[in-house]
Design a protein that fits this description.
Helix content is 21%, strand content 44%. It is of the alpha+beta class.
Length: 135
Amino acid sequence: MLPHWPAETVAILATVGGGPHAIPVSASWRAGETQILLGLAEGRGSLQRLRAQPQVAVALLAAQLAVTAHGRASVLDAPLVPGVAAVLIEVESLTDHMRPTFAIHSGVQWGWTDDEAAGRDREVRAALARLADDL
């Protein structure tokens, strides 16, 4: 079962195709016990790789959380919002990296320095929440 994570958590999406490729993602959403939704800009090369080879890993690091979700991704047909594609990841396995010998006190948190970008992020997150409710 997928854990919950703070909204501002940076997710790391790893794709394959021409070798492994990892990118930070600002908009990730827990859509259920075995589903993650991501919002990716339509120009991202990761979308092409996902369409060709859907195997992915998503790493999430936050306070007291270190997990990697492995699964298959699909790029949904309708844009999440203009210019942003919705990606649904069906999680097949989850690796919990936490151990009693260490603690993660905080993770990398995404923040915006531009008001327009911050507004766009709120719009994308709201669309992810609506989509998660529809799944």
